[in-house]
Amino acid sequence: MIQLKKVDWDNYEDVIKLHVTKEQEDFVADNDASLIHAFLAMSEGEPVFAFAIYNDDTPVGFIQMGYDDDWSGEERKDWLESDVFKKWDGKKYYFIWRFMIDKKYQGKGYGKEALRKAIEFLKTEPCGKAEYITLSYERTNEVARKLYFSFGFYEPTEFAPYYHDEDEISAILKL
Ligand SMILES: CC(C)(COP(=O)(O)OP(=O)(O)OC[C@H]1O[C@@H](n2cnc3c(N)ncnc32)[C@H](O)[C@@H]1OP(=O)(O)O)[C@@H](O)C(=O)NCCC(=O)NCCS
Fold it and tell me: Between the CA of residue 9 and those of 6, 16, 48, 55, what are the distances in Å?
C-alpha cells in the first residue's frame, strides 16, 4: 500500500538513496538537492511539504510540494512583464515541485497512487484557499505528461504559471 510520510530525521537518508535512471536525470533534481532547496525556501518563510513515498515499509520515491510561489526575486523580467504571466499573476496555487519514483520501483503503479495521494493532500488546502495545482515537466517527459493528464492536468494557453521555454512546459489542475 502506498503512503506519503513526511521526510524526517528517521527517513531522510533513505530518501537521498533513491535515484531515477540515467536517462531520466534531466527530468528531476536529485533528492538531496531537493531537500536543500526545501530548506532554503523554508528559511525564507515559504511552506514546503516534502514526503517520502512508501510501499508498505519500503521507501520507493519522493514528492515535494509548495504553496503560492513568490516571483518577486525572479530574474527573467521579460517573462514577468509578458501577457501570459500577467494573466496568471495573483492567482493562489499549490505546486508539485519535485516528484520521482526510484528506478527499481517504476512501472508498478506506485507513481500513480502517490500522485493521487499528493493531490488529495493538496485538496485539503493546508496553507489556505487556492485556485489551482501547478507543475512543470520537460517536453520530452511523455510518461510524466500522460500521468498528469490522466489526473486532469492540462497545459493552459491563456496564461502560464511558469516560464515556458523549448525544454519545459507547465500544466495546471483546477482545484
Ligand atoms: C514519472 C514517474 C514518477 C512515474 O512513476 P511510476 O511509478 O513509474 O508510474 P506508474 O507505474 O504509476 O505508471 C503511471 C503510468 O505511466 C505509465 N508508465 C510508467 N513508466 C512507463 C514507461 N517507462 N514507459 C511508458 N509508460 C510508462 C504506466 O503504464 C502508467 O500508465 P497507465 O495508468 O495508463 O497504465 C517515474 O517514471 C519517475 O520517477 N520518472 C523520473 C522522474 C520524473 O520524470 N519525475 C517527474 C518530473 S515532472
Answer: 10, 12, 16, 19
Mean pLDDT of 103-114: 98
Set of cell numbers at residue 142? 511523455
Instruction: Report pLDDT digits (tens) over 42-70.
Output: 999 999 999 999 999 999 999 999 998 77
Residues 6 or more apart whose CB falls under 8 angstroms from that of 175 comprise 94, 122, 123, 125, 130, 131, 132, 133
Atom of ligand 1 nearest to the CA of 137: 48
pTM beyond 0.85: yes
Choosing among 3.40.630.30, 3.30.70.640, 3.40.50.450, 3.20.20.70, the CATH entry for 2-174 is 3.40.630.30
To which residue does cell 491563456 refer?
158
Domain ranges of the chain: 2-174
Evaluate: CB of 31 within 6 angstroms of ligand 1: no
Is residue 159 within 6 Å of ligand 1 at its C-beta? no
Give nearest CA residue, ligand 1 atom 24: 143
Asked if residue 29 has its Cβ within 6 Å of ligand 1, the reply is: no
Q: Is the CB of 101 under 6 A from ligand 1?
A: yes
Q: How many angstroms does the Cα of residue 106 sit away from the middle of ligand 1? A: 6
| Model confidence pLDDT, tens digit, residues 81-108 | 999 899 998 899 999 999 999 999 999 9
